[in-house]
Design a protein that fits this description.
The structure holds 2 protein chains of 2 kinds. Chain A is built from 2 helices and 16 strands. A 16-stranded antiparallel β-barrel of chain A has the order 1-2-3-4-5-6-7-8-9-10-11-12-13-14-15-16. The termini of chain A are far apart. Chain B folds into 3 domains: about 140 residues, Nitrogenase molybdenum iron protein domain (Rossmann fold, 3-Layer(aba) Sandwich); about 35 residues, no CATH class; about 110 residues, Nitrogenase molybdenum iron protein domain (Rossmann fold), CATH 3.40.50.1980. The radius of gyration of chain B is 26 Å and the shape is globular. Chain B starts with a helix and ends with a helix.
């Protein structure tokens, strides 16, 4: 029994030990689990810590950057403010009690026309030593002595939004005359203009030039013997059309004028007895970037001074070549102008046909000097057996755009009967030396265009 | 005989009456011209496929007009890049160009005096002064050397001030603005296109002039105003990011620093705006007065000035004669730079940016 009790107690004790061991194992396991949980929690906390630290760092660096940016912005803003303050710096004029206010109602002089005054002085010495051949508009400027050819008063202004007005008054010792005075509609339909008043007509390369703008001192004899020193022009209407380019040209222009002629005396192609019909067709060719060539065909018809109902017809072929090297135009220019003229003049049942020509060159040597020359031949319109040759050399010195001096040598070889009784016979040949000085006050210069 | 005389008088009277009728009829022509102008000015610009025909007095304006107008304009110009725009022969072919132009862009000062003759012959009302198709490029430019007392003792004076505005890079911004105004007037349908191109052009000028960094920091307008009123370099002396603002200067102004403050001689008053922008001091001109060729006496006085003041640089627009400049160079050792004044003045310089680059490079290489 004891043995049974002993075994029972041992069994019990064993079982109890077993149970206790099992409990212990359970506890250990439980502890291990707890440990694991704790470990995981710890890892989680550590992860959170790292994240929080990162967030904190990020926040701190953001704050730091923000503060720095703020500082930079403040600096930049200060600089910008300063920049704007400096940029807006203006001279502030002090207002004071002495300030006066003005009204413009009586100050309208800004609307005055452009006013210019040009002088054309010359001195001449002629081998013929004969003042009879020296009347302006008659035969020649062979005067010996000092002369003021003219003072030219120029007035130019727009008249209204549609028109311009130009007036050129020639004042000489002998007379005051209107050289040109016209108003002009510039922008009419069909690329056309219309001019009314007194004007030189478009006829050949240089008929329109005023005296001070001529390539030589005087007009070519071929023109003077037909139209006088006053040139071809008068009082009337004139129109100018820009045509479509014709004959491979770069520009084509047609001019037409009806004028009452100028009183020039009996020895020229036209007088003031009737109307003159004048036309010109001009073709312009760009021969290179630096040069161009113009061809003009011009004609005029009208009553001549011969008593009775007699007409004259004058035709002209004008050629002009100009070379102006781009970039060197201040120093070099070459300009060649030539015109061939044909005159047909009725004298009742008879007709007189005469011809003439001139060829003129100008060569710019440098900024100040031009050298030029001209040769010309001319038959008188009323008697083609009377004729003359003229040869001219000139040297021009331009001290500025407004003042130039010209020395010109001229030889005229004439077979012309004098119309002046005192001359008693034919006009002599003569050699002439001329000194011309031209000046311009105001905006109108010696421009030839 | 009396009958013949009467017939003659009758014919003459008829002609005079015809002329009078022609004249009276003409009185209505301005009205007709006005109506035609209105029709033209309602405008061909903005029509589908329509390209504006733009004529400029010289190449610098043409280059800007092309940038702003893009494919909506056809641009041509009269004075060539190597040409002196004071002296352009007014050829009929130029009048033809202008007669067909929708827009005429010139300096708007008394530089292109020849243009008056061409405009009169062009018979194109819409490009005349004050009309919709005329742009004065200089409008708004801070003009230098304005004449207070005009008389010809000062030579060939420009009454409205120095017209060589193209040599000042800041003026390019204003010219672009004026051209854009012109384009938007004649072609309002494409206004936003022109304005966007203008903004791009002005931004390009700003970056070319000041460099990117300063433009990003302060904007081109502020910097331009600072440069214009002469306070830019005072401002650039301010501290920024541990250094100075001037450390961030770029573009033409940085490239031109080697000659900033230098005293120079020029042939003519062409370079006044350039000198103002880049801080050069012009102490003498080879021309005694504008448009007056140099005399021996004046050249001698220039030589003395160069020697006394130790001047080392002489700027000459390439269309001037070189003989006098070469003689001055031989006698003083001064370094001359012969520069094209306009776009396309030499091959390869085909816009305003290349032109200013070229000027600065040439001056730097002469130093």
């Amino acid at each position: 029994m004891k043995k049974k009790l002993f075994l029972f107690s041992i069994l019990t004790a064993f079982l109890h030990g077993q149970a206790a061991s099992q409990d212990q194992q359970m506890t250990v396991r439980s502890l291990q689990d707890s440990l694991n949980v704790l470990k995981q929690k710890m890892i989680s906390v550590q992860t959170d810590n790292i994240k929080i630290k990162k967030d904190l760092d990020s926040l701190l660096s953001g704050l730091r950057a923000g503060r720095e940016q703020e500082e930079t912005d403040t600096d930049l803003q200060q600089l910008l403010d300063e920049a704007n303050r400096l940029a807006d710096k203006e001279t502030v004029k002090d207002e004071d009690q002495l300030k006066k206010f003005h009204s413009g109602i009586r100050q309208q002089q800004a609307l005055n026309p452009n006013i210019s005054l040009g002088g054309d002085f010359f001195a001449a010495a002629s081998s013929s030593n004969n003042d009879f051949i020296s009347e302006p508009g008659d035969v020649s400027y062979g005067n010996n002595g000092f002369h003021l050819r003219e003072m030219e008063l120029a007035l130019e202004a727009p008249l209204d939004p549609f028109t311009r007005g130009k007036t050129f008054i020639s004042i000489s010792k002998e007379e005051i005359s209107i050289e040109e005075a016209y108003m002009e509609w510039l922008n009419l339909p069909l690329h056309m203009n219309l001019k009314i008043g007194v004007f030189y007509s478009e006829f050949g390369p240089i008929n329109r030039y005023h005296d001070h703008a001529l390539p030589q001192f005087d007009r070519p004899r071929a023109l003077v013997n037909l139209f006088s020193n006053k040139g071809l022009g008068g009082t009337g209407l004139s129109s100018n059309f820009m045509l479509p380019e014709i004959l491979f040209s770069d520009a084509s222009i047609f001019d037409f004028a009806v004028v009452k002629g100028t009183d020039t005396g009996d020895n020229f192609s036209f007088g003031n007895q009737g109307l003159l019909y004048i036309g010109q067709f001009k073709n312009f060719y760009e021969t290179s970037q630096n040069s161009y060539f113009e061809v003009r065909i011009s004609g005029v018809a009208g009553r001549n001074p011969y008593p009775g109902k007699n007409n004259s017809y004058v035709g002209s072929l004008g050629l002009n070549y100009k070379w102006v090297p781009a970039g060197r135009e201040k120093y070099r220019t070459f300009d060649w102008k030539t015109e061939f003229l044909y005159s047909h003049r009725h004298e009742n049942s008879e007709a007189v046909q005469s011809i003439g020509f001139y060829s003129s060159v100008q060569n710019k040597l440098n900024a100040r000097f031009w050298i030029g020359g001209r040769i010309g031949y001319s038959e008188l319109p009323y008697d083609n057996s009377q004729h003359e040759w003229d040869y001219t050399l000139n040297l021009d010195f331009w001290q500025s755009e407004f003042v130039f001096t010209r020395i010109q040598y001229q030889y005229n070889r004439r077979t012309i009967e004098s119309t002046i009784p005192a001359m008693n016979g034919s006009l002599p040949n003569d050699h002439t030396i001329l000194l011309q000085v031209c000046w311009a006050m105001g905006p109108h210069k010696h421009e030839a265009y | 005989m009396k009958t013949i005389e009467l017939n003659r008088k009758a014919t003459l009277n008829k002609i005079i009456i015809f002329s009078m009728i022609l004249y009276v009829a003409n009185m209505f022509l301005p009205a007709q011209a006005l109506s035609q102008e209105r029709a033209q000015n309602r405008y061909r610009g903005g029509q589908q496929g329509r390209v504006l025909n733009v004529v400029c007095s010289f190449s610098d304006f043409a280059s800007i007009a092309e940038f702003i107008g893009g494919n909506k304009v056809k641009v041509s110009y009269i004075a060539r890049g190597e040409q002196d725009p004071h002296f352009v022969p007014p050829k009929p072919s130029y009048a033809v160009m202008l007669s067909q132009a929708d827009m005429w862009i010139s300096t708007g000062m008394d530089l292109e005096m020849w243009s008056a003759t061409l405009l009169d012959k062009a018979r194109n009302r819409k490009i005349m002064d004050g009309e919709i198709g005329f742009v004065s490029a200089s409008d708004g430019v801070n003009v230098v050397e304005k004449v207070e007392f005009a008389d010809r003792t000062e030579g060939d004076v420009h009454l409205m001030g120095n017209p060589h505005i193209n040599t000042g890079p800041l003026n390019l911004r204003i010219v672009a603005q004026n051209i854009t105004i012109g384009f938007t007037k004649v072609d309002p349908a494409n206004a936003s296109f022109y304005q966007a191109n203008r903004d791009a052009f002005i931004d390009r000028v700003d970056r070319a002039l000041f460099g990117d960094k300063l433009v990003d920091l302060f904007g081109g307008n502020t910097l331009s105003r600072l440069l214009e009123n002469g306070t830019l370099f005072t401002f650039l002396d301010r501290s920024y990011e541990g250094g100075k603002l001037s450390d961030h200067l770029g573009g033409w102004l940085k490239k031109a620093l080697p000659f900033r403050g230098m005293r120079i001689i020029t042939y003519h008053k062409n370079w006044s705006y350039f000198a103002k922008t880049f801080g050069l001091e012009v102490v003498g001109y080879i021309e005694p007065k504008p448009g007056i060729p140099p005399s021996a006496k004046h050249v001698q006085s220039i030589i003395e000035t160069i020697k006394k003041q130790n001047i080392n640089l002489m700027m000459v627009a390439s269309y001037f004669e070189k003989k006098t400049a070469q003689m001055i160079e031989e006698k003083t050792g001064i370094k001359p730079v012969y520069l094209p004044l306009y776009v396309n003045g030499i091959p390869g310089i085909d816009d305003n940016f290349k032109l200013v680059d070229y000027w600065i490079d040439q001056i730097n290489s002469a130093l």
